[in-house]
Amino acid sequence: MFYRQRFSLATVLFLMLGCQTQSPGTPRPNSIRWKVYENSVAGYSLIYPDVYTVEESYQGNTVQFSYGDRVAVAVHWASEDSENSDGLWFERPADRKVPFAGGIGDVFDYISYSGLTGTRTLAYVIPRHGDFLGLEFKTDHVDLNSVQAMTLSSFNLLD
Q: How many domains does the chain have?
């Protein structure tokens, strides 16, 4: 009986802690046509593969770029107490600082959970008009791939 309880507890913990999903994948770089996205609410632009679908929420403060049925890239303009801040980088220390959007930004490497499953996320974050603007990539790797790097390097502030 004791052995069965320990086994059940270990199984539950494994399932809860080990449910990391893979990233949505990446289109082949040589087949991509690039589109420009501009967001006048938060004041930025970026390029993204034309095979991504774009969905805005929270009055344009959150934008998700999906590849197939999975979010590949997201941009959040948020504060710690805004309604679109759940699961973001606010409760974590930054992993490193990098040049980003014409300044110096923080990089956060974490698992972003949705229910019981999570996806590795690399978030590039800068302060913006009293809040924070973050460009997030869902990835299986420590470094960005060439498609993600192109989107990152294209990220510009409009004002």
A: 1
Task: Give strand pairing partners of 124.
Answer: 107, 135
Specify the 3-state DSSP secondary structure of 129.
coil
CATH number, domain at 86? 3.40.1000.10
Range of the domain at 111: 21-157
Q: What is the pLDDT of residues 119-147, one digit of tens each?
A: 899 999 999 999 999 999 999 888 999 99
What is the four-CA torsion angle of 116, 56, 64, 16, rounded to 10 degrees?
-10
Residue 7 confidence (pLDDT) above 60? no
Q: What is the pLDDT of residue 23?
A: 55
